[in-house]
Amino acid sequence: MRHVSFIYKKKKCTLLFNCLAMLELQDKFGGINDLVDVIYNRKTGKNGKSEKITDDVEAFNFLCEIIEVLSEQSSNAKAAMDFERPEILRAAKLSALTSPTEIGLLRQAAFSAIEHGIMQETDDDESDIDLGLLELQKKTGKAK
Q1: Which domain holds residue 82?
Q2: How far apart, in whole angstroms, are the C-alpha atoms of residue 132 and residue 124?
Q3: Contact present, 92 and 73 (Cβ < 8 Å)
């Protein structure tokens, strides 16, 4: 299982897109493409232009709900493997504490968790994904 880790409010947080997360989010938001549209609050319209799906407040609340599901699955999976159970990022806490500059971080983390959850079916590498390290590698030109 590939957990995606990132730093939020000076704490390491992890997200996991597993089967249960997929089914739970699919019931609420639709398929994978719909889920990505919800994360970024954008959908390509019939005219080919990017359009908002909903108002910004509702979109942010949806993002917080998605993060909570992914965080809860990461916590449950780590506990099942006898690792220390990380704190679950609750939607209510995220909506109360997230600054405008952190919305991009949450979107990137949610998208990366989904992307790596799907990739794990074909990828043998079981290591966790550290978004901070990936960003540093991109900046220094040492990306794998």
Answers
A1: 4-140
A2: 22
A3: no
